[in-house]
Write a structure and sequence with these properties.
heterodimer, A: mainly alpha, 2 domains, disordered C terminus, B: mainly alpha, Butyryl-CoA Dehydrogenase, subunit A, domain 3, 9 helices
Chain lengths: 161, 184
């Protein structure tokens, strides 16, 4: 029973060193340490371990910094950096290019299609002016509006990026 | 107002070599120290250091500047070291991360800790540190040499805080007996 009592405080010492002890537990530990020789020994040994861990000093090759900096400069010149904002910008440019091309092709095909319809209407002896107006009102203008609506979101997104 | 970590993050996003040079100057020693502890040897560490900084240059955009720089740097170094170990398994850092390869290297050369010990207590710890489970050694070093919080260590090693804490307790339990029964 007595041993369990010390073990719980020694566990608290470990928690304290790890930086995960609660304020309440820390207070209880402080009170216990003021009277307990065994746990003070445990704390002292633990402190010597942590102090010992700080007692190492590794030699660093004096030329290492220069070597690293030279390698960094070389790599920075050689490789275009894969940075998120640049990649995002590049992606949006591709999207815009594709959207613009699709819009131009759709517009061109609409005019070719409407010209073809007008020719067919003439062959079938329909009123050419009436057909041209119908094509304009019911085909070209709605297509143009729809295409502009589709293009609009990509412009907004570019603004955010 | 821009904090220091945000300034570092901006510099890394822009691939600013001047910012990187300042970081090399500032964190080089700690990076070497961490890699020695991680690998348990001194040779080859310089190559890992260089590779780490090159990776920082290439992937610096992923540092968000919201947390301290050194845990992020150590994570980059650790991933590189683990990748290298998987390709050429010399020893295991963590049995859960690399399967089926042998344990710590048996070297006739003095351990890096023996060479680096500057105090009597450090000299006494040198051998035990070398033979300590690598994941416990790493946790101890990150906590007591690098003075990182358990949350930061957890982010570096990719293990829950409770696991990191138990590695620290285990490491302390292994090293402590050398000083027990002595007055400080």
């Amino acid at each position: 029973m007595k041993m369990d009592h010390h073990e719980s405080f020694q566990r608290a010492i470990d928690e304290s060193l790890a930086g995960v002890i609660s304020a309440e537990k820390a207070q209880s530990l402080r009170e216990h340490l003021s009277t307990c020789f065994i746990c003070n020994e445990y704390l002292s040994a633990s402190n010597r371990v942590t102090a010992g861990l700080s007692g190492f000093s590794f030699e660093v090759n004096p030329a290492l910094n220069a070597r690293v900096v030279a390698a960094l400069r070389l790599r920075a010149r050689q490789v275009p950096l894969a940075q998120p904002h640049r990649l995002q910008l590049a992606r949006w440019r591709i999207v815009e290019y594709k959207a613009g091309t699709a819009f131009a092709v759709a517009l061109m095909l609409s005019f070719i299609g409407s010209a073809f319809v007008c020719e067919v209407a003439t062959l079938l002896h329909f009123d050419r002016a009436q057909v041209r107006t119908d094509v304009l009102v019911f085909w070209l203008l709605p297509s143009l509006c729809a295409a502009l609506c589709l293009l609009a979101p990509s412009r907004r997104k570019r603004g955010i990026a | 107002m821009e904090s220091e970590t945000q300034r570092i993050a901006r510099g890394l996003r822009q691939g600013d070599v001047v910012v990187l040079e300042a970081l090399v100057e500032r964190y080089q020693y700690r990076l070497v120290r961490y890699l020695v502890s991680l690998l348990g040897r001194r040779d080859g560490v310089d190559d890992f250091v260089q590779e780490t900084w090159l990776r920082v240059l290439e992937r610096g955009g992923s540092y968000d500047g919201q947390s301290r720089f050194e845990p992020w740097l150590f994570r980059v170094a650790r991933n590189l070291a683990l990748d290298a170990m998987r390709k050429r398994p010399i020893f295991v850092l963590d049995s859960s991360e690399v399967d089926g390869v042998c344990s710590s290297p048996a070297s006739v050369e003095p351990s890096p800790y023996t060479v680096a010990a500057r105090t009597q207590d450090a000299e006494r710890l040198a051998h035990s540190l070398q033979t300590l489970e690598p994941e416990c050694r790493e946790a101890l070093v990150l906590r007591f040499q690098e003075e990182l919080s358990l949350q930061e260590i957890s982010a570096i090693v990719g293990a829950p805080v409770s696991t990191v804490a138990s590695r620290i307790y285990r490491g302390l339990a292994t090293l402590r007996p050398q000083f027990e029964g002595e007055t400080a």
